[in-house]
Design goal:
By secondary structure, this protein is an alpha+beta fold. It is built from eleven helices and 20 strands. The radius of gyration is 22 Å and the shape is globular.
Length: about 400
Amino acid sequence: MTTSSAGYLRFSDDEHARRADLVRALLDDEGLDAVVVFGWSALGRALQADVHYLSGFLGMRDNYVLFPRDGDPVLFVQSFNHVPNAAAVSPLDDVRWGGVDSGETLGAELAARGAREVGVVGLMPYQHHERMRARSGARLRDLTSAFRRLRVVKSDEELAWLRRGAAHTDAAMAALREQMRPGMREYELADVIERAYTRAGGLTTFHYLASTPRSAPDRCVPAQVLSDRVLRAGDVVTTEISASHGGYAGQSLRTFVLEAEPTPLFAELHEVALEVFHAVVAAMRPGATEQDVLDAASPIAAHGFTIVDALVHGFGIGILPPSIRTHETTHDPAPWTFEVGQTLVVQPNVVTADESAGVQVGELVEITPDGARSMHEFPVELVRVGAPTA
């Protein structure tokens, strides 16, 4: 890990050269003159991941990288007043304002470079896509899946950043364990979570949570919008938290019980989730496939439970392939083979069939030559907060 002369996080020159070589090889394979990569600020800037991969800039608003097969790449920044910071952060030499209309600007640049066959990456606005196509006269082809496949296997430098992100995420979980108490409102837990890592340089990707009485549960998954519900003794709180180091995020999913022991239902849900978590992690070895994961998840249905989210998904900076569910909830899962250097979230979100109750268990793991290994240190267990009340 290095920093720029202005003090910003930056990967080494060798790491950026590795990425450039991968992209140019992809352009050669696809017969393309250039690729235009789009990023925007949703999901804690994680949807800047493709732009960040090539430019090192984890910005706001709409940003683009034009990466040619021959010649130098350009980072186009949507907002004029964001350009100075982007130029200080990015290792790219050419950083410019995207203009009043980014599609027109990109189209003019492609035309000037004579790019006729161009790949596009990301969910760019259709207005930009159409104006870029019309202005450049180029044939545009969706390259998103192939480009993101380049990001699936992480380098040693990327793995080091992910471990820092996992540590920030663990700090948030530890803070919840120490500071959660009856009388707090759900949204107050956001302050507890973010204060745990922002002073150490961590960035928020997201924090989802939901609280419900253990004796009369009415929700099965963490919520993206936190309510003003007041926590009470006996509550079950499910969480999904992701904090990052320079955008490279850990992810941890845990279930808390507040000043109580779990009811038999929640105890069974958590035992099944924990069993499946360990079985899936054990199954994810180099050369294993999505079928091994599906088989490892069989206890969920055997106990009459289901899931409402992916069981396993690629992760690092933003969500990546694969996305694997269960035999019962998957329709024609895409073939996948696990390789050394892949990083994935294993998250058995086991819920009742009527979706009235559920638990969260899981975290980010890396595939090593010896199998999957957690990138986190916070215990994978049901988290009991405070002494049980009578």
